[in-house]
Design goal:
This protein is elongated. The protein starts with 20 loop residues before the first helix and ends with a helix. About 60% of the residues lie in helices and about 0% in strands.
Length: about 70
Amino acid sequence: MEGIVPLFYPMRKASSKPVTPQSIYDGMVAAMTGGNIGVVSNAISKIWNSAVPDLDTIKRLCYRNNEVID
C-alpha cells in the first residue's frame, strides 16, 4: 500500500430525515434492490488478487463504489 493515497472528491448528499423503523426498513430495501455495491466490490477483489493488479482501475472502482454508497 506504499504510495497509495485516499481519493478526495465532492459528492452529492442525500437529504436528511428522521430515523424511524420505517426509514431503516426503506433504506435496507433500497440497498438490496437499487445498488450495485457487491458487483463493484467483487470486481475490485478480482483485480486486486490477480497476478498484476491494475491500481488505477482499482482506484476508479473504489471511487464508483463510494459514490454508490454515498
